[in-house]
Design brief:
Length: 249
């Protein structure tokens, strides 16, 4: 049985005091008898990892990074190494988000190298993939997903999460239909079965991301092969994020 995972991607948002307050609120919601029945990870901007980690404390909410470099160290100004993320208390790291693929020109090979670096450092990579609106309109969505799985997924499947985020649904208010999400996640699971075998593929959690909000979370999380959500804008509001977490089946 795959346990639901709800991941908060704060992107490039928040100053120190606001981030501490938000992290403390998330940690508070995740504790006690009324805690949601799911795993939770918060991924703040890199400069806020330490104060956010301190605000989360030793409770059930995990800390995650938003990106890492493929090398463990070196002359890479402005980048963050996976071992450093682990040293700061991170357990997860997002790699291959569409904003990295499009805005920074990251290829499938780059994403795969980052995912493998994350695993080598003891982190679980959350590998993002998804098609653009033009690719879906052209009937290429599943082909794009298949290519990204083949090129972006690391060699090891034992510490791995995938997030399907159709690019056209990220931050737009548009949400893929339940049929589209179920089809994409089923296709991803099948491709993972080819790579790792059916039993290993069945253990990998698949998240959906793209304008996930309290009013659509329950329906999305109830779909077959949807094991959680990668939440953007709604994760910046404690009550909205709490509602999404509590929508876990």
């Amino acid at each position: 049985m795959r346990r639901t995972l709800i991941a908060a991607n704060w992107k490039m948002n928040g100053l120190r005091d606001d981030a501490i307050a938000l992290a403390a609120a998330v940690a508070g919601h995740a504790g006690g008898a009324a805690a949601p029945d799911c795993d939770i990870v918060v991924c703040p901007p890199a400069p806020l990892l330490v104060p956010v980690g301190e605000a989360l404390g030793a409770g059930p909410v995990a800390l995650g990074g938003q990106d890492c470099h493929a090398e463990a160290s070196g002359a890479f100004t402005g980048d963050t190494a996976a071992p450093l993320l682990a040293d700061l208390g991170c357990r997860f790291v997002i790699v291959g988000h569409s904003e990295r693929r499009q805005g920074h020109g990251e290829s499938d090979a780059t994403v795969r190298a980052k995912a493998q670096a994350a695993q080598a450092a003891g982190l679980t990579p959350i590998v993002c993939l998804g098609e653009t609106e033009a690719e879906r309109a052209a009937g290429e969505a599943l082909a794009v997903i298949e290519r990204q799985v083949a090129g972006s997924v690391p060699e090891r499947g034992d510490a791995l999460v995938l997030a399907y985020e159709p690019v056209w649904a990220i931050g737009t208010g548009k949400v893929a239909t339940p049929e589209d999400v179920a089809e994409a996640h089923g296709h991803i699971r099948a491709r993972l079965g080819v790579l790792f075998g059916p039993e290993a593929a069945a253990r990998i959690r698949l998240l959906y991301g793209g304008s996930v909000k309290p009013d659509n979370a329950a329906g999305l999380l109830a779909l077959a092969d949807v094991d959680g959500a990668l939440v953007g804008g709604a994760s910046l509001k404690a009550e909205e994020f709490r509602a999404i977490c509590r929508a876990s089946p």
